[in-house]
Design goal:
The structure is a homodimer.
Chain A (H helix, E strand, L loop, with lengths): L15 H7 L4 H6 L1 H10 L11 E5 L2 H14 L8 E4 L12 E6 L6 H12 L3 E6 L2 H9 L4 E3 L10 H14 L7 H18 L9 H9 L3 E7 L3 H15 L4 E5 L17 E7 L4 H16 L4 E5 L5 H23 L7 H10 L3
Parallel strand pairs in A: 1-2, 1-3, 3-4, 4-5, 6-7, 6-8, 8-9
């Protein structure tokens, strides 16, 4: 197969001025405020009482949904935590019943899939909690005497992730299903603050890992590999690559990718760039990553690795989350696309409303 | 961004001779025998007794794992079916306990992740069943007096899917957790037989949808869109594109993709080809598919759609599964790569064994 691939040299320095020129709406300011977003959630007391359930379902789409993926990754490691499902659609799984806790999360409050799932949860007499910054969901929570957690304001649902994630974690703790301790929650706020000094908009590319990764992923299709416990955070990265930087991206999770995707590394790979997110893996997982790197290299494709190993899984997740989120913002700037507007989603909503 | 993309004209007719020239190991013969594989499973009585559980976990990697994804899609629509999780890794979720049914499936019987999960399941006193064609898993089932279901022989785990899928479904029925009725199982065998006449190796490209889709996906990165209920079958398609045709592929599920991936359809999309798998969707889902098609078209990327709407979800799944599996075989032939050998996976196993 013949292919020609011309890589344009990017001269952009990703200075604050470069960023402000492309990010006209100032989405970057929301990201700069993530530690303060998280902190504000922890200062508010959430009025919820303990429940007794044997299943948890988290319903949310897009930016509101990805907190659920992260909760699921955390739940797998938490002793005796009930099965936690994430629903990204209109309907609850058939098992949902009166001993199921259903967290319905819609940042805007008007997501039609989540409103539909909320109504099903009421019909099935599940124990429901609503999370939104307002909208229809807040209204129907009040009407149905369902507890509602109010989320703080940001420019977009995706840039409001700490409001969503920390609110969900705090609510779960109040409901008797703690996934992460209060100390850990506070630790991650300090961690984000420290990280911001090096990956934030003011930091120079030579010291800024997020700016470097954005350059690495520029002008190619990103393929991201990581371990099972980073599935949620890497799915979130994919989503933000889609929405901020406007590129498709492929996430493959190890060890499963070693049974299928790995076989696609052939000499004719092209227009790809790879990112590995590696935790403090044990020997067998490390060998899998190493072999995959060897195969990528043989194919002539460039790759880069991020090693994350904090004291707890949640701290590792938050570190990776913040680093990769900044990366998507910088990639948008390199590509010259404003990260805040999502015109295709806007068009879809217009079509759905019958226009 | 400047990009040049030269599409090579494919003159291959995908005749039986073309297929045999590339598929030297004759993997296609396994696919031709899928109806008979399924039928042979239904003729064997599986010696299992009813159990009483409130969670089901399916453990399996690659070709052995994807039957679990399909079971999960089916379970969501089955009244009162307990939460069903699919584990593709070394460890069980923390919730696994004595009231959890754990199906451990390894076609070879020697998959290290599944063996690890099996041992955890014994420690946690779960109700375990093993499925393999032999190997270590059969051995440790016998040693630990765990019921074992023997799978029939095929060239590769992926080409043995009916052995795995129909055995798992039959076993679940014996265990008291029926997902698909016996009539439906029989219906799908007839359905595969009929389908084989048009999508099998002997059928001409002009009448053969699988050969046509392979031509459509040739020399590009496939992006596949489908609804939630086809998630398992489309993930399987991705895996077989990886293993048989040796290409990376991206699966995006609607409506979730409408909240993120959709935004990546920009005028600079390139080297992509899209496939939509559409069920008999209601109005809102159909509008989502239509808008996505409009955006793909605007980007100048070619797309093709498959419409599947059989009487039951399982019949739709089996139809799509068989059609897409043949597609991956034909795409391998077009690319001139033998579909049966998986040299990268073989290299990985060598590295893991310390070589």
């Amino acid at each position: 197969m013949k292919r020609v691939w011309l890589r344009e040299v990017v001269s952009l320095k990703l200075s604050k001025e470069d960023i402000e020129r492309v990010d006209r709406e100032g989405l970057y300011k929301d990201y700069e405020a993530w530690p303060e977003q998280a902190e504000s959630v922890l200062r508010v007391s959430i009025d919820l009482r303990e429940v007794n359930v044997d299943k948890v379902v988290y319903c949310g789409m897009g930016g509101s949904g990805c907190a659920g993926d992260i909760l699921q990754d955390l739940s797998f490691t938490r002793p005796k935590f009930p099965p936690l499902y994430v629903v990204k659609g209109y309907h609850l799984p058939s098992f949902a019943d009166e001993s199921t806790l259903v967290l319905t999360v819609s940042y805007s409050g008007d997501t039609e899939e989540t409103i539909s799932a909320f109504k099903e949860a009421l019909e099935k007499r599940c124990k429901v909690v609503g999370f939104s910054s307002g909208g229809e969901l807040e209204k129907i929570c009040v009407e149905n005497k369902v507890p509602h957690v109010k989320l703080g304001r940001a420019l977009t649902p995706r840039s409001a992730l700490p409001y969503i994630l920390y609110s969900a974690l705090s609510a779960l703790e109040r409901l008797g299903y703690e996934l992460v301790s209060t100390t850990e929650l506070s630790n991650t706020i300090a961690l984000m603050r420290k990280l911001r000094e090096t990956i934030g908009v003011a930091s120079e590319p030579k010291d800024n890992e997020a700016k470097q990764i954005a350059h690495h992923l520029y002008n190619a299709y990103p393929i991201i590999y990581g371990p099972q416990e980073f599935r949620g955070v890497l799915t979130r990265f994919k989503n933000s690559l889609n929405e901020n930087a406007k590129v498709h991206a492929l996430v493959e999770i190890l060890p499963e990718a070693c049974h299928n995707d790995i076989e696609a590394w052939q000499p004719d790979a092209f227009s790809l760039r790879v990112l590995f997110a590696i935790n403090g893996s044990d020997g067998r997982m490390r060998k899998r990553f190493d072999t995959l790197m060897e195969l990528v290299e043989r194919s002539g494709v460039e790759y880069r690795s991020i090693y994350v190993k904090e004291d707890t899984l949640f701290e590792s997740i938050v570190k990776l989350l913040y680093l990769l989120e900044y990366t998507t913002l910088y990639l948008a700037v390199l590509r010259g696309v404003p990260p805040a507007p999502t015109p295709n989603i806007a068009l879809l909503k217009k079509r759905l409303s019958g226009d």
